[in-house]
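[Discussion] Sanity-checking designs against the backbone

I'm trying to build intuition for which residues belong where. Below is a structure token string of 86 positions. I'd appreciate it if someone posts a full sequence so I can compare it with mine line by line.
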């Protein structure tokens, strides 16, 4: 999952937000937090988050073949800057 920010300033402010922690991905996606990888990519103002899929791509219960709709669960997540208030 790639999370793009609209500026370098916002990337710097929110890239380490608790809202992007492995525990949040455990809660939202049911994944093992020890397997969540967060990779900041400052050249593109994005944070790449990688975690194992709950079901194999193309399997019988697969509802989102390319994980294009996974971001919807993040829409209600609030990001905090370094001060903790944003």
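Best answer:
Here's mine. Compare freely.
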């Amino acid at each position: 999952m790639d999370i793009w920010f609209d500026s370098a300033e916002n990337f710097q402010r929110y890239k380490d937000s608790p809202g992007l922690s492995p525990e949040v991905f455990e809660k939202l996606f049911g994944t093992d937090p020890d397997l969540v990888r967060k990779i900041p990519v400052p050249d593109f103002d994005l944070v790449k988050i990688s975690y194992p899929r709950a079901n194999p791509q193309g399997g019988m219960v697969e509802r989102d073949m390319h994980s294009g709709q996974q971001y919807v669960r993040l829409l209600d997540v609030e990001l905090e800057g370094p001060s903790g208030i944003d």
